[in-house]
C-alpha cells in the first residue's frame, strides 16, 4: 500500500506483510525534548533490479540535498531540485513535497519552513525534513526521510548547510553501490560512524545487545 504516498489503513485495504515485497514505515513521536519524523524503506527478501535502482536514486537525492552548501538567505525551493536530480536523470519523479518544518514538541509539520514556493528562506537553527521518494502505482513505494538542522557551513563567507539529526541506518539490501559516487559513499560512511558513536553506547547502556549487534552489522562501511 506504500505505492500510495499518503495511504491511510482501513479494514478493507490492510494487507499481510511479506518478505517478497518492499515495506515503507513512516515513524515519529513527540517527546518533551523534541519531535521525530523518520521514514525508512526495507526489503526482507530479494528486490528486483528496478527496485534497487529506484531506492538508490532516492537515497542519492537525500544525500545530495543533505550535504549541500548554499548561500545564506536561500529559499528552500531554490535547492529542492537537488533531491530530485538522480531520479530526473532516468525520467523518474515523485508527487509530494521534499520536506517540511518540524516543531520542537509542537507540530510534526510546522509552517513556514520547507522547500515549496511559499516557504520562508532557510536560516540557521531551523529544523526541516528531507524526504525524497518514488512510487510505482500498484507495486511499491519508496521514501527516505530524515530530520535535518540548518547550520552554518565551514566556509570563508557565511553559507549554510544541513546537519542530519536522524540516526537510523538505510537498508543495505536495497543499495546499488555502483550508482553512488565516491563522495556519496564517503557521506554514508561518515553518517554510519555517527550512528555508531551516538546510538551504540545508548543501546549498550540499556543492555539491548541484539539491537546493538544489528546496529553494528547495518553500519559497516
TrEMBL record:
InterPro entries: Creatinase/aminopeptidase-like (IPR036005), Pept_M24 (IPR000994), Peptidase_M24_C (IPR032416), X-Pro_aminopeptidase_P (IPR050422)
Keyword Endoplasmic reticulum recorded: no
Keyword Protease attributed: yes
Residue ranges occupied by any Peptidase M24 C-terminal domain in the UniProt entry: 158-221
Keywords annotated in UniProt: Aminopeptidase, Hydrolase, Protease
Domain of life assignment: Eukaryota
Domain Peptidase M24, first and last residues per copy: 1-151
GO function terms (MF aspect): aminopeptidase activity
Family: Belongs to the peptidase M24B family.
Name of the molecule in the record: XPP2 aminopeptidase
Organism: Hylia prasina
Amino acid at each position: 500500500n506504500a505505492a500510495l504516498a499518503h495511504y491511510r489503513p482501513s479494514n478493507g485495504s490492510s494487507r499481510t506483510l511479506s518478505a517478497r515485497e518492499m515495506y515503507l514505515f513512516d515513524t515519529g513521536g513527540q517527546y518533551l525534548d523534541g519531535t521525530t519524523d523518520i521514514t525508512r524503506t526495507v526489503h526482507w527478501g530479494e528486490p528486483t533490479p528496478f527496485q534497487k535502482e529506484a531506492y538508490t536514486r532516492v537515497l542519492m537525492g537525500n544525500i545530495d540535498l543533505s550535504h549541500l552548501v548554499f548561500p545564506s538567505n536561500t529559499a528552500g525551493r531554490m535547492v529542492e531540485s537537488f533531491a530530485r536530480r538522480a531520479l530526473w536523470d532516468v525520467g523518474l519523479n515523485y508527487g509530494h513535497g521534499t520536506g517540511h518544518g518540524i516543531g520542537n514538541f509542537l507540530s510534526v509539520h510546522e509552517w513556514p519552513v520547507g522547500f515549496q514556493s511559499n516557504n520562508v528562506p532557510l536560516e540557521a537553527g531551523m529544523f526541516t525534513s528531507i524526504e525524497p521518494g518514488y512510487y510505482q502505482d500498484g507495486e511499491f513505494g519508496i521514501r527516505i526521510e530524515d530530520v535535518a538542522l540548518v547550520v552554518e557551513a565551514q566556509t570563508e563567507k557565511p553559507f549554510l548547510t544541513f546537519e542530519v539529526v536522524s540516526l537510523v541506518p538505510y537498508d543495505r539490501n536495497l543499495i546499488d553501490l555502483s550508482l553512488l559516487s565516491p563522495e556519496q559513499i564517503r557521506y554514508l560512511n561518515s553518517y554510519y560512524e555517527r550512528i555508531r558513536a551516538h546510538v551504540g553506547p545508548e543501546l549498550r547502556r540499556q543492555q539491548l545487545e541484539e539491537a546493538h549487534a544489528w546496529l553494528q552489522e547495518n553500519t559497516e562501511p
